[in-house]
Amino acid sequence: MIDKAHSISLLVANRPGVLVRIALVFSRRGYNIDSLVVSPTLDPNFSRMNIIAHGNPEILMQIIKQLEKLVDVVQAKDHTDTNAVEKELALIKVRCSPDQRTEVLQLCDHFKAHTVDMTEKSMIIQITGSSDKVDNLKSLLQKFEIVEYIRTGKVIMLRGEDKT
Amino acid sequence: MANKTLSGAEVIIECLKREGVDTIFGYPGGSAIPMFDAILDSNIKVVLTRHEQGATHMADGYARQTGKVGVALVTSGPGATNTFTGIYTALMDSSPIVVLAAQTTTPNLGKDAFQECDTSGMTFAAVKHSYLVKNSNDLPRIMKEAFHIARSGRPGPVLIDLPKDVTAGPCTAPFTDKMDLPGYKIPTHAPIQAVEKAAEFLKKSKKPLLLVGHGAMISGASRQVRELAEKLNAPVCCTMLGLGAFPTDHELSLGMLGMHGTVYANKAVLDCDLIFSIGSRWDDRITGKLDVFCKDAVKMHLDIDPAEEGKVLQPDVFLCGDAKLVLEQLLPMVNKLDTADWVKTCQSWKKKFPLTYPKQGGLRMQHVIATASKLTGGKAIVTTDVGQHQMWVAQFFDINYPRQLHSSGGAGTMGFGFPAAIGASFGNETGWPVLSFSGDGGFQMTEAELATAAIHKLPIKIFVMDNKYLGMVRQWQELFYEHRYSSVDMQGNPDFVKLAEAYGIPGLRIKRAADAERVIQKALEYKDGPILIHCECEKEDNVFPMIPAGAPITSMIVEQPKAQLEKPTGST
User: Which of B163, B184, B257, B364 is the most exposed place for a label (fewest CB within 10 A)?
Assistant: First the structure.
């Protein structure tokens, strides 16, 4: 079995301690959480969590069952390879002189990314989209100096009228 | 006083009463004083223990004996941390306990205040669920939820972290039956398609084997297990915690399977064409080397916990639900199978490979246990600690009734047996004596509870099986580590008879096999509270049969091997 990234969506009670309980199910097996997004749902009593984790698929299946078993977890689902919209946002700070700007802006344009901050020597680029798209822009920007870079982690929503 | 506002502590005590709690086990401290104060005005009996670990094991023993929720009440900081072993023990064996742990005041949380401890944070991994209460008005709902979660579904420990201002402050919220648990599901019946599939598999089986675990006991499914075994004419083996869910003296019983199980149960596991686990979790103690375990047999798994499906092995059918309810679904769908030859084969193994022990040499623990079993007619509540004596109790004490044997299975907690016997004794309505078997190592971990047993004059027969060694570890070092004994010599053991007498408990001594019957009879006839029986046993004795950890069942050793064995690959 090859380790691949799994997209896990959780609906949980919006209470203190929930995140620790969830993290422990992963850490107990020495598994790492690659990315994590948490926000309250329309009903503020609940939160939606999106977790990306790498690992053996059979073990991740078991982890999902053990997440589902937690008293505060209403639902745990694996959305890997399902028909879901998966997007993330990244901010990339690039050191660039005025004469490099045109090239950077051309790249941004191609990726439909925006500049959200600009100084004499630097620029912050905001990009949204699939993880691959973010990866690609980042690698192209590497010819300039990337000062820092942060991603939100994936948010996942099932296509169509069904709930995630 | 009609409209007096209750304090948080008073509300907690009232909630305990409403949950039917009549006995709790505890140890006070600064932060817990409001609760210990409120309990004075109730009719709940507080058993003051000598250590918080003892309190949790007692709550656990009480829960295992009664099927009700056991309650421990302790103070913050070290009081709370001392309960962790007991909480983890209860989790591993699905035992319903509620631990009320006091805490510093809420403004002090996170400030390293005196006896502050992140109790809920430290126990997340060892509880079924837990609460940190920050508002007194949440208490009625949380108490309701805690007991519900502890006892329902797959039972387990629930911890409530109770800051002192929450217990001392006023609670104006009404008592309630309302719970707010949107994520908590309790499986009941299994999907009908799964039950039909199971019935189909059973119909085709010529050599079925039922494997009965603790889940069957917790569910109260003994009658249904027996009906199924008899209706199918299928042999039955039990895990250690399953012993008693099916009577060992039944002609279809093969006793305990696994690492130190009977030869005939393990032979049946090797030879069956279908194995049906009813409330067992395919623990490594019973499967041995997993990839060859029941390789060609159909595997059916009934469990109330959906996360057990595929955890250890992938079954051909998984029945998620309560053992009793699911067996009731299954029973009308099955008929007698053509298993006469299979049952005959199993019974011939039973005759050919009985459990035995050497009669020569010094006093054998097996002899003490078998004699106690004979003299009580198997009508006794039995608790064990962990190690060689534990396996010998499972082998040589006749366990024929549900909730008759209490032992730390999953956790293997030394120090569990004696306090569990105290807890069981408080909940014991059978009229049978409580027999507590411990080794000299484990007994010394919680022996301070002799005071607790003495104060309450509990009719416990405390067997200390003293071989002056940590026997099971010594056995491994002898068999697998070239006799290199490392830190297993219990030099410095006290005279346990004198120790008992220091607590006002009479002590008896057995040194020779010939004295066992007379002394045990005397202990059984003693009616004035606890009595300790110090059994000075053969120092070097080994538990057989034995399947080395991680080895396939075919590697079973039935007697003392002549040559040194390979180091086991499995855990512990």
Answer: B184
pLDDT at A91 over 50: yes
Residues of B in contact with A13 (CB under 8 A): 182-183
CA distance B553 to B184: 38
| Cα three-residue angle B500-B502-B504, rounded to 5 degrees | 75
Mutate to test the interface with A, among B129, B158, B313 (most CBs of A within 10 A): B129
* Structure ipTM over 0.85, yes or no: yes
Alpha helices in chain A (DSSP H): 18-27, 57-69, 101-110, 131-141
For B129, phi and psi rounded to 5 degrees? -160, 165
| Whole-number Å distance between alpha carbons of B503 and B477 | 36
- For residues B204 and B201, give the distance between their C-alpha atoms in angstroms, rounded to a whole number: 5
Could you tell me the CA-to-CA distances from B519 to B83, B433, B487, B512 in Å, in that order? 36, 16, 32, 10
Q: How far apart are CA B363 and CA B389, in angstroms?
A: 13
The separation between CA A159 and the C-alpha centre of its own chain, rounded to angstroms, equals: 18
Q: Chain A contacts of B182, Cβ < 8 Å?
A: 13, 45-46, 74
What is the greatest pairwise CA distance in chain B?
A: 79
Does the pLDDT at position B380 exceed 80? yes
Residues 6+ apart with CB under 8 A from A12: A18, A22, A46, A47, A48, A49, A72, A73, A74, B183
Task: Return phi, psi of residue B268, to 5°.
Answer: -65, -40
Cβ pairs bridging A and B (under 8 Å): 45
- Residues in chain A whose beta carbon is closer than 8 A to a beta carbon of chain B? 12-13, 16-17, 20-21, 24, 28, 45-46, 58, 61-62, 65-66, 68-75
Amino acid at A39: S
- Residue A72's pLDDT band (boundaries 50, 70, 90)? very high
Whole-model pTM: value is 0.96
Catalytic residue among B414, B472, B490, B556: B472
How far, in Å, CA of B206 to CA of B202, rounded? Answer: 8
Strands B97-103 and B158-163: parallel
Which is the catalytic residue, given B10, B14, B52, B116?
B52
In angstroms, the first-to-last Cα distance of chain B is 60
CA dist., res. B108 & res. B114, Å (int): 9
